[in-house]
C-alpha cells in the first residue's frame, strides 16, 4: 500500500490568530452556521469531557462537535486554573486541534490560549441578539465587567448598533474601564450604572456575564420588548437570573438543552419547578425549525453555556482566515 | 497585574518523537509508574470522550488522566477512520497535548500520529507480563499480526526474554512478516503457527491482538503456568477470549474496571454471568495494594483497554526525552 502525500500540519500562535480573527460579522456568521448545523440530522456533539483538579484549584474541559457540511472538526481543550492570577498568569488557557472530517488527519493546531473561545462565545451572544432581540435596540446593558462582558457588548453592537449602553459591576472602577473599552470599540455612549436595576430597566438588550451563584437579574425588572443573553453560567452552581424571570419570559432559548439543564440558568429554574418541558435551542431557531421572537413586546431570554459546535466553527473560520493570510508554520506530518 | 514570563510551547513531530522515544525499558517503566499512580488517592481519569462518525466510517476518542506526582497531564486525541487505507492513509492518527499540572498552560504538542499510543500500549503489555507472567518464560505467542501484535511481542521480550515465539494470524503471509520483524527485534526464534491453538499451547505468555468479535482463544487451551494479555478489545463489541477462559483463570486483572466492563474482555464474560465482582486493576497490583500471580502454576489474564494514565505518562516521558535531546521547535506563547 503506497501512502498518499498528506498535507503538512499548520501551527498557529495566539498572536497570529488574533491578527487573523477579529470579533466581526464574519465570526458571528461562522458561529451562526454552527448553531444551524447543530440542529441538522447527522450533527454530533458528545457530552463535555470535564476533569476537576481540586489540588490545583483547576479544571479542564474538552469540547467537540462534528457538523454536517463542515470539512473539519475541532477538539478544544480549555484548562481553567483559578490560582493562576496569583502567579501573574491568566486563569483560562487552552488550544484547539483541527482534524479532517473525512480522514481524521490532524490539519492544524491553534495555540490560541483561549482567544478563539472568547471570540466564539461573544459571537454566540450576537447570534442570539440577531435572532431574538427586538429589531430596534436603542440601549444595551451588561452586568459584569470582565473580558467576556466587554466582548459581548461589542459583538451585540455588530447586529444591533445601539446608541447607548450601561455597564454595571460590583467594582465601579472595573465597570468604568469596561465602559471605556466598549465605547471605544463601538462608538456608543456607554455609562456606568449605580445598580444592576438601573442598567437593566433602560435597555432592550441585557447581557449577564458575571460569575454569580445567586441571581443578579430579578424578575420584575424586565419590561416588555426586552432580550436577555445570559452567558455567565457555564459551570455547575452558577446562576445569574432569578428563576421567576425565566418562568415569566415569553420565550426561553438555550444553546444546548442537556448543558443548560446541568450548568445553565435552566438548572436553577427547573429546581424551582419552572420550564419542565424541552425549550427550543438557538440552532433550531436559526435553522427555521422553531420560532424565535414573535412580537416586538415579547421578553426573550437566551441561556448560553458554550458548545463544541461553536469551537468547530470558529476553528474552521480561523484556519481559513490564517491560510488566506499565509500565516502560521507548516510542519511535516 | 504583571504577567510572569511563561515558557514557550514545544512542538514535536512524529519523526522527532520516534527518534526520542524507542520501545525500551524506560518506556515500560514510565508506563508502569502511570499504573501505580492511577491506584493512588488523588488520581483522576474521566470517562473517555468518544464521538462516532458513521458517515466517515470513523470515530474519535479523547483520553486523559491527572496523576499525583506528575508535573503535567496529557490530553490525547485518537481519530480512527477505517476507510483511510483505501486512500493510502493510515486508519489511526492523532496527537497529544501536554499541560502543566500546576497552571494548566500548554507545555507541548506531540504530533505523533498515534506513535506514542503504540508505544504506551505495547509498554502496558510489558508491565502486565512483568507483574503477572511466570518468572521463567521460554516461549511466547501472539494471535494477530498487526503493528500492535508485533510491538507487544517486542515489549514482552524486554521483561521476559523468551527464546522462542509463535505468531498466528488469519493471513499466513502477514504472520510470516510479523514473525520476521519480531525475530529481528528480539533475536528470538519466531515461527508461524498453523492454528491459534498450536501457538497458545506451547507458550507461557500469550498475547491476543486481533480485532475479533468472536473468541480466538478458547478455554481449554490454557494449561497451568500461563499468562495471557488481551489487548485487542479496545472497542465495544470486540471479544478475543472465551468467557469460560476468564472464568477458569486463577486471576483476571484489567487496566480499568469501568473500561473493561464496557469494551474489554470483561464485557462478554459478565454477559455470560462470570466475574460479577470487582477484579483487581493492574495499577493496584503494581502499587502493592492487591496480589498478582501467587504461584508459578497459576493462569493469569490481563485485559487492557488503554488508559489516559498511560497517555499522560508516555507524554511526560517523551517530553523529557525530547528536551534532553534538544528536539522540537519552541514557539512563543
Question: Keyphrases for this structure?
Answer:
homodimer, alpha/beta, ornithine cyclodeaminase, domain 1, 2 domains, 11 helices, about 20% strand
Could you walk me through the main structural features you see in this protein, from its secondary elements to its overall organization?
The structure is a homodimer of 333-residue chains. Chain A has 333 residues and is of the alpha/beta class. Chain A folds into two domains: 9-117 and 309-331, ornithine cyclodeaminase, domain 1 (2-Layer Sandwich); 134-306, NAD(P)-binding Rossmann-like Domain (Rossmann fold, 3-Layer(aba) Sandwich), CATH 3.40.50. Helices cover 35% and strands 22% of the residues of chain A. The first copy, chain A, has a seven-stranded mixed sheet. Chain A has a seven-stranded parallel sheet with strand order 9-8-7-10-11-13-12. In chain A, a hairpin with a 7-residue loop joins strand 3 and strand 4. In chain A, helix 8 crosses helix 9. The radius of gyration of chain A is 20 Å and the shape is globular. The two termini of chain A are 18 Å apart. Chains A and B meet through strand 1, strand 2, strand 3, strand 4 and strand 5 of A and strand 1, strand 2, strand 3, strand 4 and strand 5 of B.
